[in-house]
Design brief:
Blueprint: H1 2-18, H2 20-49, H3 52-72, E1 79-81, E2 101-103, E3 110-114, E4 119-122, H4 128-135, E5 140-142, H5 153-158, H6 166-169, E6 176-182, E7 188-192, H7 197-200, E8 212-222, H8 237-250
Parallel strand pairs: 1-2
Antiparallel strand pairs: 3-4, 4-8, 5-8, 6-7, 6-8
Length: about 260
Amino acid sequence: MVVLSDITNRWFEYVLVRYRWILVCFVLLPVSILYDAYHYIRCKIIFKLKSAPNKHDGKVKYVQKQVREWKSSGCKMPMGTSRPGWQTMSVGTSKFKKKLFPIDVDLLDILELNIEKQFVRAEPRVTMGQLTALLCPLGWTLAIVPELEDLTVGGMCNGTGVESSSHIHGLFGNICLAHEVVLPDGSLVRCSKDENSHLFYAIPFSHGTVGFVVSTELRIVPCKQYVKLEYIPLYKADDVCKKMSEESRKSNPEIGRASCRERV
């Protein structure tokens, strides 16, 4: 039986390594397409019906309730979101979450779009793909757009993000106008640069250690359908730095990126 099991494992490993394209093409890709289609249709319907703002307060109260339950249990272990590992951007398994008190922060929707004041208000699980799908057809975009569609508002706010427009707008935290945060005592606090500013400036780079961000207002800017790019090849690091500085001072382009590749 041991020998048979060993042979079976070897064949299974051989098939996964040599013929993994079968699993990818006929299982993972169709499932991924259906999953994305479901979320796209869901987000469109909810935004059109404008039901998300009405349900937001109830979902926030549920987060507060869970935090208070953690506090009443004696705070024996740290808190963390209950988001499963397969939904994160990490290639690793989030084993550390097994040692955390799970808090369900399942907040997935765009709450408000204010063109006049140039901001969009979104819950933390809203992705960059959701925001660009909503904003770009209207001629608007985030001042900084991280290029991976599955990155979330909460992740970018609690961590950081940089893109090709950051030389003008700064890091992702610099386009955040306000946050709603559930603190470790279960209270809900709104913070901005003018209101509870000490909390507002503590959110970036905190990686969720300050509290649970339950909504964020993000600055948006007008955009066009296409971007005109000029490609300038350079072959030395000093030349790249010099050229980037010159172009930034001369024309202040809306988008600037330096890509470095090793010569083979």
